[in-house]
Write a structure and sequence with these properties.
The complex is a heterodimer of chains A (322) and B (289).
Chain A (H helix, E strand, L loop, with lengths): L2 E10 L2 E11 L4 E5 L6 H8 L7 E6 L2 E2 L5 H4 L6 E4 L13 H11 L8 H11 L16 H13 L5 E5 L7 H18 L2 E6 L2 H7 L2 E6 L2 E7 H6 L4 H9 L5 H6 L30 H5 L32
Chain B lengths: L10 H13 L2 H18 L1 H4 L30 H37 L3 H13 L3 H12 L3 H28 L2 H8 L4 H12 L1 H24 L11 H8 L8 H28 L6
The chains are: A alpha/beta (322), B mainly alpha (289).
Organism (chain A): Nonomuraea jiangxiensis
Family (chain A): Belongs to the ABC transporter superfamily.
GO molecular function, one term (chain A): ATP hydrolysis activity
C-alpha cells in the first residue's frame, strides 16, 4: 500500500467537505476518485499532500502515518508524492521560466546541482512532449495544454511514487484533453507511479484507472475495479452518473435508459440524515431517511457500496423505477 | 532559506525586450525624459548655478534676463539657482520618503498577508484608521509633531504613505498565496522564506514599483505643501514650496516667481506618473510581446 486513508474528516468551519472517508492505493495502482463538484474530492487530494490539515482521521504514506508530521519532518517525504493541479494558468509561477519551474524540485531535494539540472529538465520536457527550447520560455507564452504538460513534468521529475492528479484535464479543450490523458497513461505505464486521479468525469476514469471510488457529499458511496463498476454499478448514484455519460454509439445512446436525478447536491453544511443520497434517490424508502447505510460488500468481491438495497443476491436498479 | 534555485534565465535578453517595448510608447518616454531632466536639474543644476542665497539688492524682483534666466526674488536672489537647489530638496523628499514607506511597509504587508492569524486584523485596522485621514492632513499632523526640517518632511511623508503600501502589498499577497503555484511549492517542500521571496514578492513587484513611482510625485507635492505651510524645509534653504510662499506676495508684480516653481512641481509630478504607467505595462510578463 503506497497510500492508506483511514476515516478522513475535514471540516471547513461548518462545511463538512470530507466526512469519514477511507481508501487505499496499491503500488503502481491508479485510483479514480469520482464525484460532482462540492463532493469533497479535491479536499482529499489536498489532505494527502498536507496542503490542508485534516480535522480527523489518518493518512499513511507507504506505511508511515503522516497525518501529524511537522513541515520539517514532512519535507523528505515530499520527494515521493507530487501533485498535478487543475488550473494550468495559476499552477505555474509567472515569474519563472519553464526550466526553472521544472528544475526547482531537483534543486530543492538536491537530486541535481546547477550544472546537471538543465540536462535533466530537457530530458523531462521531452518525456512530456515539449521541445527543450521551451525551458527558456515563460508560462504566459504557452498554451493551456503545454502548461499542463509542464505541470506534469514538474510533478514527475523527482520520479515520485504517488501522484495526486486533481482534475488535470478538465480545464483543457476536449481535443487537448485526449492527448494529455494519453500522455498521463503512457507516463504511468513507463514510470510505474501510483496515482490518485481526481475527476468529475467518469469517462476519463474508465480509460485510465485500475479502480474507481465514487464520492458523494464527503463520503465514498461505492468503490471497486473499474471494469466491475462500469459493468455492474451497485449504488443508485453511480448508476445515475453512468447513465448521464454519453455513449459514442448513437443507436445505443438512443436506446439507453437514462436516470435523471432531481434537485441539487444538498449542502455539505447540513447533510441529510440517514443515507446522504436519499433526497435524490429514486429508490429511497423509509430506512434510507433514518439509517445511514455502511459501505458494505455483501458478495465479498472487493466492490463495496453504501446502499441498503445492495444485498448478496440483489443490486438496486435506479433506472427500473418510474 | 533564500538559496537561489534559479536555472539561469537569459535576463539580458529579457531586459532588452522590455526596453524596446518601453521605447515604442510616446507617453512613458515623455515621462522618462521629464524624470531625467528633473534628475539632471537636481544633481547637476546646483553645481552650475550660483549661490542660491546670494542677494543682489540692485536687482530685486527682476524679470527673466540674461544674467538671471528665471528672474530674481524680493531679495534679489537668482530664481534659477533656487529652482535647481529646490529640485534637490524635492528629489530627496520624494525618494527618501518613498524608500522609507517601502522598506517599512512591504515587510509588514508581506507578513500580515502571508501569515494572517492575529497580526493581520491588527495591522489592517491600524491601516484603516490612518487611511481615514486625508493624506495631507495626516502628513501635516506628523510634520507638526516631528518639527519642521527636511528630515521631518521625509519621515512625515514616508509614514503618511505607509498605509497605502501595506494595503497594496497585503492585498497582492492574499491573492498570490491562493495560487496553485504556491500550493505546488508547498507540496514540493519549499520553506516559507523561499515562498515569500521567490514566489510571493516577485509576483507583487509590479504594483509596488508602480506605487513607488506614484509615491515620489505625491511626496514632491507633499514636500512643497508642507514647506509652503511652513511645516517643511525652512528658509533660507530653497524649496519649491518655500518659493511659492514668497511668490504669493508678489503675484502681480513678479508672476514668474510663482510660475517657475509651480511649473517644476507640475512637470516633475507628471514625469513620474507617466513613467509609472509605462513601467506597469512593461513589467507585467503577461503583457509581453
Amino acid at each position: 500500500m503506497i497510500l492508506r486513508i483511514d476515516n478522513l474528516v475535514k471540516h471547513y468551519g461548518p462545511v463538512r467537505a470530507v466526512d469519514g472517508l477511507s481508501l487505499e492505493i496499491g503500488q503502481g495502482e491508479v485510483l479514480g476518485l469520482v464525484g460532482e463538484s462540492g463532493s469533497g474530492k479535491s479536499t482529499v487530494g489536498k489532505c494527502v499532500l498536507r496542503l490542508t490539515e485534516p480535522t480527523a482521521g489518518a493518512i499513511e504514506l507507504d506505511g508511515r502515518d503522516i497525518t501529524h508530521l511537522s513541515r520539517r519532518a514532512m519535507r523528505p517525504l515530499r520527494r515521493d508524492v507530487h501533485m498535478v493541479f487543475q488550473d494550468p494558468y495559476s499552477s505555474l509561477n509567472p515569474r519563472f521560466t519553464i526550466g526553472q519551474i521544472v528544475g526547482e524540485p531537483l534543486l530543492r531535494h538536491k537530486v541535481a546541482d546547477r550544472r546537471t539540472v538543465s540536462g535533466r529538465v530537457s530530458a523531462m520536457l521531452e518525456k512530456v512532449g515539449l521541445r527543450q527550447e521551451m525551458a527558456s520560455r515563460y508560462p504566459h507564452e504557452l498554451s493551456g495544454g503545454q502548461r499542463q504538460r509542464v505541470g506534469l513534468a514538474r510533478a514527475l521529475i523527482l520520479e515520485p511514487r504517488l501522484v495526486v492528479a486533481d482534475e488535470p484535464v478538465s480545464a483543457l479543450d476536449v481535443s487537448v484533453q485526449a492527448s494529455v490523458l494519453n500522455l498521463i497513461t503512457d507516463l504511468q505505464r513507463d514510470m510505474g507511479f501510483s496515482c490518485l486521479f481526481i475527476t468529475h468525469d467518469l469517462s476519463v476514469v474508465e480509460f485510465l484507472a485500475d479502480r474507481v471510488a465514487v464520492m458523494y457529499l464527503g463520503k465514498i458511496v461505492e468503490s471497486g475495479p473499474t471494469a466491475e463498476i462500469f459493468a455492474e454499478p451497485r449504488h443508485p448514484y453511480t448508476q445515475a452518473l453512468l447513465s448521464a455519460a454519453p455513449v459514442a454509439d448513437p443507436v445505443r445512446q438512443r436506446d439507453r435508459r437514462r436516470i435523471v436525478l432531481g434537485g441539487d447536491v444538498p449542502s455539505p453544511v447540513d447533510p441529510p440524515a440517514g443515507c446522504r443520497f436519499h433526497t435524490r434517490c429514486p429508490l429511497a424508502y423509509d430506512a434510507c431517511r433514518t439509517e445511514e447505510p455502511p459501505l458494505h460488500d455483501p458478495r465479498g468481491n472487493g466492490h463495496p457500496a453504501a446502499c441498503h438495497l445492495v444485498t448478496a443476491d440483489r443490486v438496486p436498479d435506479a433506472a427500473a423505477h418510474r | 532559506m533564500t538559496e537561489t534555485l534559479a536555472v539561469p534565465a537569459p535576463v539580458s535578453a529579457r531586459r532588452g525586450r522590455m526596453w524596446r517595448r518601453f521605447r515604442r510608447r510616446p507617453m512613458p518616454m515623455a515621462g522618462l525624459v521629464l524624470v531625467v531632466a528633473f534628475l539632471l536639474l537636481a544633481l547637476i543644476g546646483p553645481l552650475v548655478t550660483g549661490d542660491p542665497a546670494q542677494q543682489d539688492y540692485l536687482a530685486t524682483l527682476a524679470p527673466p534676463s540674461g544674467a538671471h534666466p528665471m528672474g530674481t526674488d524680493d531679495l534679489g536672489r537668482d530664481a534659477f539657482a533656487r529652482i535647481a537647489h529646490g529640485a534637490q530638496v524635492s528629489l530627496q523628499a520624494g525618494v527618501l520618503s518613498m524608500l522609507l514607506a517601502m522598506v517599512v511597509g512591504i515587510p509588514i504587508g508581506l507578513v500580515a498577508g502571508f501569515y494572517r492569524r492575529w497580526l493581520d486584523p491588527i495591522v489592517m485596522r491600524l491601516v484603516d484608521v490612518t487611511l481615514a485621514f486625508p493624506f495631507l492632513v495626516f502628513a501635516v499632523g506628523l510634520a507638526a509633531i516631528i518639527g519642521p526640517s527636511l528630515k521631518g518632511v521625509v519621515i512625515a511623508l514616508g509614514f503618511a504613505q505607509l498605509p497605502a503600501i501595506i494595503r497594496i502589498t497585503r492585498g497582492e499577497v492574499l491573492a498570490i498565496r491562493e495560487m496553485d503555484y504556491v500550493a505546488a511549492a508547498i507540496a514540493d517542500g519549499a520553506g516559507d522564506g523561499h515562498i515569500i521571496f521567490r514566489y510571493v514578492l516577485p509576483n507583487c513587484a509590479s504594483p509596488l514599483i508602480v506605487q513607488a513611482t506614484v509615491a515620489i510625485p505625491t511626496a514632491i507635492i507633499g514636500e512643497s505643501t508642507l514647506s509652503f505651510l511652513g511645516l517643511g524645509v525652512q528658509p533660507p534653504t530653497p524649496s519649491w514650496g518655500v518659493m511659492l510662499t514668497t511668490a504669493q506676495q508678489y503675484l502681480s508684480d513678479a508672476p514668474w516667481l510663482a510660475i517657475w516653481p509651480g511649473l517644476m512641481i507640475a512637470l516633475a509630478t507628471l514625469g513620474f506618473n507617466l513613467l509609472g504607467d509605462g513601467l506597469r505595462d512593461v513589467l507585467d510578463p503577461r503583457s509581453a510581446r
